[in-house]
Design brief:
485 residues, alpha+beta, six-stranded mixed sheet, six-stranded antiparallel sheet, 31 strands
Length: 485
């Protein structure tokens, strides 16, 4: 499934695929191999590029750069009707004036297929989607789930090598959507063809898929089986997006031991790339509730709710709210121990490797009492006294280091910010939302209790009194201590 994989049964291959709309990059160097006869799900938040990939494979869009192959044949310029592909959209686009039979038979009639063959294929497809006996039923009189099955039968009747499904369950109610998840997987196995399915619903992805492709901001974050994605997420974004998880900023001073919430937990991982600052992931079901003296950590139960097969508890530990799923319950206000085996911890590199925002800038103007500098073309003015040095040493053009805490940054509407950026990720860290905002120049870390929609443009405001500045020795230095793109 990766760029370097070599496999004779690969049906679709995307190499260095990029797509831009009006100068904005929607897909960035996508490399993906899709095996024949598999159920592959493209999973990610709105705006991550998953539907764009589907449209490129289907031929409804052309790539800005990169290539699309079916087998060994490049299909960049092949129109949709000449590709061995059919598509099922969220809006099924059935013909309301035709009955079920004629909707399914439509594509065959366009190809001038003999009537006997049409009868055989339509009956076979309707039996596969459990609509036998509905041939003469008007589609307007069908339920949402039945209409969806008609759309699938119509797409499959021409026996394409590949079926593309763009959030086809989005219009259904919860119970019907769950039923159709199982039916779709069964249909894919019976038809024995490749399904590429687009969704932002992680439960759908875990239920149906052979392979999940997790996407964010036009890039692939991880490719794997549902089990590997859930148990071994590549980063905090994947861990947060797939299932429920406790995600913490943690510290590893040595391999196989991680410090969090005032305690030390044994783990099976080394420090990633030798980094001391890491992300720690522990799934709620992997935390054992014990007596306080037997726990690695202790916490105060703040809520407990019976969920049928387990109790869901929120536990305050070290100022963080831990989520626990356990068959053992505890009362609100009770202090409990929490034990986690090394195998149930997962260590990852932090998506933002430092704990503060530090950038290099230059003094743009100076007078007897204050100096000014710019961050992202926004001018900030501070008193000379904050530099703690002789004012005579401060000249226009002097290089300075500018530092501000992620807690001291505020997300605001675009027209109210000091400068603007693209909200690349929002991850709940059991105490606050960790946000990463990308501008043309660099990346910024923001930690806040507020929540925002990922993949949107936002404004950033920084209070000048929260900014720490120091004079750099080399005024000509171009070195930046910040996170550049």
């Amino acid at each position: 499934m990766t760029k370097n994989e070599s496999c004779s049964d690969i049906l679709v291959r995307l190499t260095d695929l990029c797509k831009s709309f009006d100068g904005e990059d929607v897909l960035k160097n996508i490399n993906l191999y899709i095996k024949d006869k598999t159920f592959v799900t493209l999973l990610g938040p709105s705006g991550c590029g998953k539907t764009t990939i589907l449209r490129l494979i289907g031929g409804f869009e052309s790539p800005t750069s990169g290539d699309i192959y079916f087998g060994n044949t490049k299909v960049n310029d092949v129109p949709p009707h000449k590709r061995p592909v059919n598509t099922v959209f969220q809006k099924y686009a059935l013909f309301p004036h035709l009955n079920v039979y004629e909707n399914v038979a439509f594509g065959l009639r366009i190809k001038k297929t003999p009537q006997k063959e049409i009868d055989e294929k339509v009956k076979k497809m309707l039996a596969m989607v459990d609509l036998k006996g509905y041939e003469k039923r008007p589609v307007a009189k069908l339920s949402g789930g039945q209409q969806q099955r008609v759309a699938i039968a119509r797409a499959l009747v021409n026996m394409p090598k590949l079926l593309l499904l763009d959030e086809p369950l989005g219009a259904l109610d919860l119970k019907l959507r769950k039923d159709m998840q199982l039916e779709l997987k069964m249909i894919q196995q019976q038809a024995n063809i490749t399904f590429i399915y687009v969704t932002h619903d992680q439960e759908e992805a875990l239920t149906m898929s052979d392979v999940i492709v997790v996407m964010k901001s036009g890039t692939i974050q991880q490719i794997g089986t549902p089990e590997s994605i859930y148990n071994e997420p590549a980063n905090a974004f994947v861990a947060d997006f797939i299932g429920e998880a406790n995600i913490f900023n943690a510290v590893m001073d040595e391999d196989y031991k991680v410090k969090v919430c005032g305690g030390t937990i044994d783990c099976v991982d080394k420090r990633p790339d030798g980094d001391r600052l890491v992300d720690l992931v522990i799934r709620p079901e992997d935390i054992e509730v014990t007596s306080p003296e037997k726990g690695i950590l202790t916490g105060l139960v703040t809520s407990s709710m019976f969920k049928g097969v387990h109790y869901e508890m929120n536990v305050d530990c070290g100022g963080y709210t831990w989520l626990i799923h356990s068959t053992v319950t505890a009362s609100v206000g009770e202090t409990i121990g929490m034990y986690v085996t090394p195998e149930n911890t997962h260590i990852m590199k932090r998506m933002f490797p430092t704990e503060s925002n530090v950038i290099a800038s230059s003094v743009s103007s100076v007078d007897e009492e204050s100096f000014s500098f710019e961050i992202e073309d926004h001018k900030y003015t501070l008193p000379l006294s904050v530099l703690g040095c002789d004012p005579k040493d401060i000249l226009e053009g002097s290089r300075i280091s500018v530092e501000f805490s992620p807690y001291d940054m505020e997300i605001v509407p675009e027209d109210e910010g000091d400068f603007n950026g693209f909200l690349d990720s929002v991850i709940w860290k059991n105490k606050y939302n960790e946000m990463i905002v990308i501008t043309d120049e660099r990346r910024y870390l923001i930690e806040t209790l507020n929540d925002e929609q990922v993949s949107t443009d936002v404004g950033i405001r920084i209070s000048p009194e929260k900014i720490n500045v120091k004079l750099l020795a080399d005024k000509n230095s171009d070195e930046s201590e910040g996170e550049k793109n």
